[in-house]
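TASK: fixed-backbone design
INPUT:
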């Protein structure tokens, strides 16, 4: 569902009117702010991970995606929240040339300087930087990089924006509840309960066969970059 479709569903429940205002209406602007809060609630619910928020560097098409001679530090996608696993390096034919393990920054001091590994520094608010432990050898220059990471949810800024969550009606109920709370409407608790029911259902579905917890590959062994 798009933002405007979610707003239409919200407005029917809020006003019980057949005609929905356009995106220039004050109520739409209010709903957009409430939708942002609902997405934040979903993204941080119960300290877990949502499968809808896993992304890859190449699919996102943001940040540095190719190795450069003499370069060990690379920019990452702006929407990165967490990273783990390994970096895949592959040629123009898509053939993997290496898998470089990702380690935690605090563990770097315990690894030999000749080991081949990488790590991320930074934070979700100011951005991350990918660092390789050694420079790539000549034969590895120009290889494509890819890795899986956990991203921040997309904010619904335009009428056609679409949220990542599997049951976007959560946004409708959560926004309705907060609208009722702001106006001291007695139906606030009922709308909140509806939203929490949808949220718990999504969490239950996400935990059923979720491959991502734990999702970090704890492997600190490797040779030199390109060797």
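OUTPUT:
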């Amino acid at each position: 569902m798009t933002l405007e479709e979610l707003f239409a569903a919200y407005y029917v429940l809020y006003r019980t009117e057949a005609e929905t205002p356009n995106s220039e209406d004050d109520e739409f602007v209010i709903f957009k702010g409430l939708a942002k809060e609902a997405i934040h609630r979903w993204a941080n619910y119960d300290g877990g991970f949502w499968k809808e928020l896993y992304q890859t560097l190449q699919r996102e098409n943001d940040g540095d995606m190719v190795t450069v001679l003499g370069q060990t530090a690379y920019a990452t996608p702006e929407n990165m929240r967490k990273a783990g696993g390994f970096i895949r390096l592959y040629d123009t034919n898509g053939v993997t040339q290496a898998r470089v393990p990702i380690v935690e920054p605090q563990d770097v001091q315990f690894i030999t300087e000749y080991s081949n590994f990488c790590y991320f520094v930074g934070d979700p608010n100011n951005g991350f930087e990918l660092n390789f432990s050694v420079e790539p050898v000549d034969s590895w220059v120009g290889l494509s990089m890819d890795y899986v990471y956990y991203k921040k949810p997309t904010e619904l800024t335009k009428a056609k924006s679409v949220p990542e969550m599997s049951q976007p009606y959560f946004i409708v109920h959560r926004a309705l509840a907060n609208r009722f709370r702001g106006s001291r409407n007695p139906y606030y608790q009922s709308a909140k309960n509806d939203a929490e029911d949808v949220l718990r259902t999504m969490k239950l579905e996400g935990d059923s066969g979720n491959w991502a917890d734990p999702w970090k590959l704890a492997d600190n062994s490797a040779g030199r970059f390109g060797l």
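COMMENT: The helical segments are 3-15, 26-43, 57-60, 169-182, 188-207.
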